[in-house]
Amino acid sequence: MLEVVDCRLLEHIVENVRGDETSDNNIILFRKLQVLKLVNLPSLTSFWCYQSRKANTCKVAFRFLRLSSIVLKYLPDLKSFFHGANYEFHMPRISRVIIRKCGLSNTLFTRSVFRNLRTLHDLTVFDCEFLEGIFEDAKCEETLDMIDKIITLDQVSIIHLEGLPKLKSIFFGATYECYMPSLKYVNIIGCGLSVLFTYSVFREIQQIEKLHVSNCESLERIVEEVGGDETSEENCKSITLFRLSSITLQFLPNLKSFGCASSYVFNMPKLQNFRLIKCPQIEYSVPKK
């Protein structure tokens, strides 16, 4: 375990010694580290600092072979962590990521880091006011095959995002859709989303048990259709979620509907609690077959 707490002047976790040159593609290996916890480091600006004339060209991969848990709290000057201009994290066994009150901006994970989070179970992010996205979209000039646009994280069961006013998307972007077939609990509070799920993503989260969405001022729909290629008989799109037992939609001033059209049919045979509180613009909620 590596735990660093209350070091007010600490700026970097790992720093090369000037003159300790690395090759253009270098791997730094952590074989046994299982838990990384950084708390209350007000001057921390990056995980890795590379002071060299080659700083713009050297690429470093940090490989954490056994790392299962990362906790980052109260790091106001930290703009990025899992990736930087010249480094990326590889975490083949990561299962839990908890982040609170960090200065993170743009996106949390690059596409290459994100695609390899195969064992991630719990993603919790609180109070990062500058964070715009969890997962990085491809660059405009990149051309992706269809297989590269679909990302599946098989083990994720908990998503809790709270106090992220600039967050624009979670489960989909301009160049990707993210499928989480084991997802059970979704809590979205105080985020800047306009749409939470696409139709194709939502219909695949068959394990979901609880959905809580509140205090998202820009949210207009929970489920949105993307593209026009998804059709079914009688022009009706059907989603069956056998385990979903609780839905809370609360303080969503611009929420217009649960789905994007009246042709959506949601089958939720185990739904016991449906709370709709202070959503003044709601047009219709959840049609049930």
| Helix content class | under 10%
Number of helices: 3
Widest beta sheet: strand line-up: 1-4-7-10-12-15-17-19-22-24
Beta-strand segment tally: 24
**Molecular shape:** elongated
Outline the low-pLDDT stretches: 228-235
Distance between the termini: 51 Å
Mean pLDDT across every amino acid position: 84
Largest sheet geometry: 10 strands, parallel
Q: Strand-and-helix sequence, N→C?
A: EEEEEEEEEEEHEEHEEEEEHEEEEEE
Using only C-alpha atoms, the radius of gyration works out to: 21 Å
Which range does the strand content fall in? 35-45%
Structural class: mainly beta
Notable traits:
single chain; four-stranded mixed β-sheet; LRR_dom_sf; mainly beta; plant defense; 24 strands; 3 helices; ten-stranded parallel β-sheet
